[in-house]
Write a structure and sequence with these properties.
171 residues, alpha/beta, three-stranded mixed sheet, globular
Length: 171
């Protein structure tokens, strides 16, 4: 914001400080109040590893780690040690820009809706797949019936689902 001329450097530093305090307060007030959403490639750059156990050690035991591994899987490590992993959908990629943000938005929306962890990861994958299959960095939401079908399908049906420019191809 400062570089764009929207705020002064001092105001920017104050915002960063306030955000840091709020994040620490949230982490202390709510068990597993912190969520770290990161791509495996980003983790390799910032932490020197994409190994979930090593990242857990770096982030501390109270955070929830969501690790997205490109077109392969996404997993969550919970503070209590539970691990949930969901494979990515098969996607005919048109444009990769925006997929990471769409995954994060889907996962966080599922969290706010109180969905089970597997469905949160599926919702993240659905958002990312929809964005990957269009030329823009955003996509229209899925039809509610298709969304519900995919959130509740079997692992085999999930694995057989494809997404492309023409939409979702259900098994």
């Amino acid at each position: 914001l400062h570089l764009a001329g929207a705020i002064s450097l001092e105001d920017g530093l104050e915002l960063v400080t306030l955000r840091g305090r709020a994040m620490q307060d949230a982490a202390g007030a709510v068990p597993s109040g912190m969520v770290a959403l990161i791509g495996a490639d980003e983790a390799q750059v910032f932490a020197g590893t994409s190994d979930p156990a090593e990242l857990r050690e770096l982030l501390g035991p109270r955070s929830r780690l969501v690790l997205k591994n490109d077109a392969h899987t996404a997993l969550v490590l919970e503070p209590d040690g539970r691990r949930t992993e969901v494979p990515a959908l098969t996607v005919e990629v048109v444009e990769p820009v925006g997929a990471g943000d769409a995954f994060a938005a889907g996962f966080l929306a599922g969290t706010l809706q109180g969905l089970p962890m597997e469905q949160r990861l599926r919702l993240g994958h659905l958002g990312a797949a929809a964005v990957l299959a269009v030329p823009e960095d955003h996509a229209a939401p899925l039809e509610p019936a298709v969304r519900q079908t995919l959130l509740n399908c079997t692992d085999e049906e999930w694995a057989a689902t494809g997404v492309g420019p023409a939409g979702v191809k259900l098994p």
